[in-house]
Amino acid sequence: MDSIELSQWINKLIQHHNLKAFYNCASWEHLRIEVLKEQNNECQLCKDKGLYSEAVTVHHIKYVRQQPELALTKNNLLCVCKECHYQIHHKYEPKEQLNEERW
Predict the structure, then answer these.
(1) Is 102 within the bounds of a domain?
(2) Where do runs of H (alpha helix) occur along the chain?
(3) What span, in angstroms and rounded, lies between the C-alpha atoms of 63 and 76?
(4) 52 domain residue, yes or no
């Protein structure tokens, strides 16, 4: 499947709310394992902080829904641990601080 066909297939999956089918396809599974091996099964975000965490997820930097043509592009993939992946998708936005006048 070339990149145009892949994009068309992924777009159809998105339209039918079935992106899970992409994550179950053999091409993704093969690439996922390859990228984990290449990045030594280490969370790259923790590694940048001088820490070690086992990577359990291969994250799309540019999301599949926004750029399906990059779904199987290695330089768009980053190995991350469960905590970092959660933080990427659920960024914490601090609430407004309460002070003496706002309680």
Answers:
(1) no
(2) 3-15, 20-23, 26-38, 44-48, 82-89
(3) 9
(4) yes
